[in-house]
């Protein structure tokens, strides 16, 4: 196995001199650290208070000419001043911690800066940003599991993840998965086979049913049997911090809330430095050898959006809470963790970071796909409340009928076991316009359809109050 490389790049912020390809007396530094990725240089007190404080504790990276924003390093390959330096880089003696880069599939300065932000956001030792959320999940699974390995996973996960675990990994790698109700801890415990089950995988808030996982209890249960806990936190950045609650690895589709613009595809793996180092190993690393490389220009775009992620999440969550409350009063069947009748409301409240709310997604169960489609039609085409589109975290409200879209990889039986109703409409609540303006658009859409007569009667009654 190749020697791993030191990478506390960016903590000192020093650029190497053009001719400084050798560092006399410094060789022992690189040998002793044996680290490839940036550790989290954040005071524990700041992290305990708020993930935004953790982000603010990072050193600000300035541009090449002193710009307040860092420069984009768009190069695929990097030069050295002396031939001997390249040998030292390939043996791991010199690395990104001293501004030595080989090739951007391995390390890129702009992507490394974003990785530091993600590590701070999630409170992990290290992070590495990938080309997509599925690239992050796939790479973690392939690194932690070998042929014959076993995974226990929540039965309610994103359709692409479900297909990966159900079809692709068994066919190509002989890695099998047992799906369980993640709220049934006894079932989880019984499904984990000691010394065989390598990963317990679940979403912090499930897609699309919005079931909340008890991260501390599930982590204890898995660790007791020697199993790693991997949590997809795409639905709840800032709201939940799985690593602080006991999880080993946190994955993200950064295309969603972290991006906020529905204009880039990106992912991230946040976790222990030892794991991320192994994933970047020259001979056996899944990230290194599969090459799900993030483009530096994408990394720059995302690094400029993370500083206001907390502000955006608070507004997403505030509006989701308000709309869920009003929809419930209308008589609609609403699923939202912020409502007190949600089965895991108090659990989420006990785990959540203070001040960020209960998530930016809610679901309305219309019972049938026909009714769900009619509702979405009126919300988009009659009143401009939102857009019929997959994904989430956009500044406009996005709506989809999960059973026939983002969860379509599940068969009918799997959907039923996951609790995905045929008429379940998932709404990612945006923050454009004023709250009251958007709510009036929702009311207008409801009033357009005679099929919503019960809701309309309640709406008329409420207006008289």
TrEMBL record:
Matching PANTHER family, A to Z? CYSTATHIONINE GAMMA-LYASE (PTHR11808:SF80), TRANS-SULFURATION ENZYME FAMILY MEMBER (PTHR11808)
Q: Where is the signal peptide?
A: none
Q: Which family does it belong to?
A: Belongs to the trans-sulfuration enzymes family.
Keyword Protein biosynthesis tagged = no
The alphabetized UniProt keywords are: Pyridoxal phosphate
According to the lineage, what is the superkingdom? Eukaryota
Specify the protein name. Answer: Methionine gamma-lyase-like
Q: According to the entry, what is the taxonomic lineage of the organism?
A: Eukaryota, Viridiplantae, Streptophyta, Embryophyta, Tracheophyta
Cofactor(s) needed for function: pyridoxal 5'-phosphate
Q: Which residues form a coiled coil?
A: none
